[in-house]
Amino acid sequence: MPTKQKLSRNLSGRLFIFDGMDSVGKSTFTKGVSKKKQKNNNTPPRQPVNKTCIVKIINQSHWLPTKTTAVFDTYWRFAAERQEIFFKRIARAEPPWTKDVVLQSYKFTNAYRASDRVSQFLIRHVIYDGSQEIDEIFFRILLFKTFNKIETWQHLVDNLGQIFWREFSFKAYDKILTNAQAAKKSIYSAAYIMPSGGRHGVHRIKHRNHLLLIQKMMADALPAQISDSKSMQVVFNLLRSYPMIGDFLAYQYAIDINYSTLTNFNEMSFIVPGPGAKDGIRKCFSDFGGLSEVDIIKLMADRQEDEFARLGIKFKDLWGRSLQLIDCQNLFCEVDKYARIVHPEIKGITGRSKIKQTLKPNNEMISYFYPPKWNINEAVKTTFDNK
Asked: Which one, 58, 231, 312, 364, has least CB within 10 Å?
């Protein structure tokens, strides 16, 4: 089979001829001449060695006019290695699941947001375990995500039985949560800081303001408004209109709600970059070339196959589901942290140089379950049945 040959220009302006892939699956290139030399040199470019594998070729102006840094390639390698760890854990392989000492030492989320332990608990035990009435689904999602902590949800269930909006009592919920805090139990996740309410809050105690906020949403018939929304951006705007909910939380909640039957939007339709993602983007790109952070995340999602092929990486996707906008955004956030150790010379917005959370593996196996509308649960089940 003849080999496709195309010239590809890297960001330094030097031409390369893409040869294909070698026997171990790595991309091979033949160095060519610079654009300037090519104009003044009649010597034809060196012909590549024949290969038998045809690989999709990236357009030579692929990332122009942006300028990337060394962290850009690290982004793709990190995504692939983190996904390798995910599948090795499913296969019950013995640790360590990677040779990467940084991934061995520090906590990083999965390449796919929905694969993380908290997201999995939300999907299986909060969204799809219980009444599927609109109000009940929304109430459970917002209640769980307010604290974003599995132990807090289980504590509420232990004390209340099943969680129902129709049986909600501010006094009862407040008492359970107040007693938990009095017993020195943390009721909020450390993943991100929830606003206390500030000038918007009625109470000095944070969880009381959050319970009142959920009550307000329910009184406003927000679940029905969300269910009737025509786009994820409309859902985002509805959530963003409430006090204590900024861009980051509104987008995270919109994604969580979209796991349920309340909405059914394509995850490639809308993105709002969070603070960590913005830091990661600035580490990957030294010059945006006039593009916005939203543009860059969309391009990363659109061009993921090309980038993995360019680097000779065989990326294991999520049972046929490619990285979505939310996943690409989260990866920027994780690469921001990873680069603090691997690329300390490249600074982001915050200038942070350390990773806070060390890796403490949770060996409790997850029975993975994704939103049924994604149509991958049968493939997931087959994978586990074969282990």
From this structure: 364
Q: Give the residue numbers spanning the domain of 200.
A: 133-258
Q: What is the pTM of this model?
A: 0.83
What 3-state class would DSSP assign to 371? coil
Task: State how far the Cα of 46 lies from the Cα of 303, in Å rounded to an integer.
Answer: 28
What is the number of structural domains in the chain? 3
In eight-state DSSP terms, residue 318 is B
In a domain, 263, yes or no: no
In this structure, the answer to whether residues 147 and 103 fall within a common structural domain is: no
Q: What angle do CA 292, 295, 301 make, to 5 degrees?
A: 145
d(CA 100, CA 306): 24
Residue 311 lies inside a defined structural domain of this protein: yes
